[in-house]
Amino acid sequence: MRRSVLILSLIAIALLTTLTYHLLNPNWVLFRKGEIYYSKNKYSKAIPCYARLLKNGFETRELLLHLGTSYVATGDLEKADTIFRKIINQSPNKLAAVMELAGICTIFGRFKTATIFYRTFLQEQADNRSVRILLARVLTWSGHFDEAILEYKRALGEEK
User: Fold this and answer.
1) Nearest-CA neighbor of 117 among 153, 154, 92, 141?
2) Nearest 5 degrees, angle CA 96-CA 98-CA 100?
3) What angle do CA 54, 58, 63 make, to 5 degrees?
4) CB-neighbour burial class of residue 67 (10 A; exposed 0-12, middle 13-18, buried 19+)
């Protein structure tokens, strides 16, 4: 009998704690729900969670980064562009956002803008070969062949 009362009491405490947390922290609960979808690559299900959080005024760097990435994954590049620009405007040192935005600009054929973003990234990480190669590709696609050759040589370590 005592054992049953103890077990029921513990279950009741667990349920009340969970309910209280959900009532007091609904934004964090929704954020975690979005994170679960995001971690399972279910981006179209994560987007409504993240968008609702933004509407509620709940905004973190991670939320914005995951929302922008989710928009890219679902092909909504205009919204992704808006989100990544917001991240960059809040703090210009967000290299992940700079890279995502450069990729979006490349997809849209905005090679001049993509070049600016890749160069911004390289100011922080000058030895990043992958980004230097991406810059060289964008320069090639935009018809700046001499600059592209120079960037490829830098990526290979032939020039500084």
Assistant:
1) 92
2) 70
3) 70
4) buried
What are the tokens at 121? 């990234």
| Judgement on whether residues 137 and 78 belong to the same structural domain of the protein | no
Q: Residue 32 in contact with residue 58, Cβ under 8 Å?
A: no
Listed residues 91, 119, 146: the one ending a domain: 91
Same domain, 86 and 110: no
| Residues 5-18: tens digit of each pLDDT | 777 777 766 665 65
The model's pTM: 0.62
Structure confidence by residue, pLDDT tens digits, 39-83: 999 999 999 999 999 999 888 888 998 998 899 889 888 898 888
Residue 91 one-letter amino acid: S
Q: Which CATH number goes with the domain that contains 103?
A: 1.25.40.10
> 56 and 104: one domain?
no
Reduced to 3 states (helix: H, G, I; strand: E, B; else coil), residue 137 is helix
Measured distance between the N- and C-terminal CA atoms of the chain, rounded to whole angstroms: 79
Same structural domain, 118 and 39: no
Residue 59, CA distances (Å) to 37, 51, 137 in order: 18, 10, 35
Percent residues over pLDDT 90 in the chain: 39
Boundaries of domain holding 87 = 1-91
